[in-house]
Design a protein that fits this description.
2 copies of one chain form a homodimer. The first copy, chain A, is of the alpha+beta class and 153 residues long. Helix content of chain A is 24%, strand content 35%. The N and C termini of chain A lie close together (6 Å). The interface between A and B is medium-sized, with 33 and 33 residues.
C-alpha cells in the first residue's frame, strides 16, 4: 500500500480541512437529474424559477455527490479511510443553482479508537458547503473509519 | 398544474409503497465513481475484491441516487411533493455490487400538517432497499413536504 498522508492520528478534534471549490454548471445539473432525480426543477430553468427553489437547481443528491468529490480530492483519497457506515444527518439549507461556486470545509467533531478492531479509529465529522455569496447550502454529519498510522502495511 | 395522484392526504401512517427494481451494472458504478467518488473500490473490480467491500461496489452516494430514481418513478413525480429539507439518517448496511438487483419500499412513519403553511403537510418516511438475496443494503429516513389535495391549482 502506498503510504497515505492522513491516518487516524492526524484527525484530531477541532481539525478543519478546506474542501476547495466546485463550479456548478447547468449541464451537470440536468445530466445528473435526468439519470437520478428527474423532477422538473432539476431539469428545466423555467420550471426551477416557478418552484420554491427559484431557478434551475441541483438535486440534493447531486449536491451530496459534488461534496463527496471535493472530499475525495481534499484528503480522503490520500487517507487510510476504510469507509463509512452511513450518514448521521444532511441539511440542504439553500438551493444550489446553476452558476454557483461551492466551497467549504470538514471539521473533526470527535475521534475514538474502535473497541472491536484495534487497528481502526472512528472519526466523526461535520461538513459545510457555502455558495459564492457565503450562504450555507449543505450541512452533513457522518463518521468515517481510518486505519491507524502503524497499521498501514 | 396537472392533477397529481399522490397528495398529503394519501400518505397515511403505515402506508407502504413498492419502489420497483433497479439492476446495477459495473459500467454505471464506474461512471458514477469516476465523476463523484473516485475511490479504488468503486472504480476497479480487483481493488474492490481487495477491500472490505468484496467486489466492485457502488459509492454510497450512487446507491442513494439510484434510490432517488426509484422513488421518483414509484410515486414522487406523480405527487404534490414540495421538496425535502434534508435527510435524518442513512445506513449503508451492505455493499451494493455490480450485478445486484435492488428493490424495496418506502413507508410512512408520521404525517402532520404544517403550522406555518396551511396548504402543506409534512410526511416522515423510512425507506429500505434490499438486494436479490434479500439482504438489506440501504436504510434511509427523511421527511418530505406535500401539498394538500385541495391546494393543487
Amino acid at each position: 500500500m502506498t503510504r497515505k498522508t492522513w491516518a487516524f492520528e492526524d484527525l484530531t478534534v477541532g481539525r478543519s480541512i478546506d474542501l476547495g471549490h466546485k463550479d456548478v454548471t447547468a449541464e451537470e445539473i440536468v445530466e445528473f437529474a435526468a439519470e437520478y432525480d428527474p423532477q422538473p426543477m432539476h431539469l428545466d430553468e423555467e420550471a426551477g424559477r416557478a418552484s420554491i427553489l427559484g431557478g434551475l437547481s441541483a438535486s440534493g443528491w447531486h449536491t451530496c455527490s459534488m461534496y463527496m468529490r471535493l472530499l475525495c480530492d481534499a484528503f480522503l483519497l490520500d487517507s487510510t479511510s476504510q469507509g463509512a457506515p452511513g450518514i448521521d444527518q444532511i441539511k440542504w439549507k439553500r438551493p444550489v443553482l446553476a452558476g454557483d461556486r461551492l466551497g467549504g470545509s470538514i471539521t473533526v467533531l470527535a475521534a475514538r479508537e474502535s473497541k472491536s478492531r484495534p487497528a481502526i479509529g472512528i472519526v466523526s465529522f461535520r461538513s459545510e458547503l457555502f455558495n459564492q455569496r457565503g450562504d450555507a447550502v449543505l450541512e452533513l454529519d457522518n463518521s468515517i473509519m481510518f486505519l491507524k498510522r502503524e497499521a498501514q502495511a
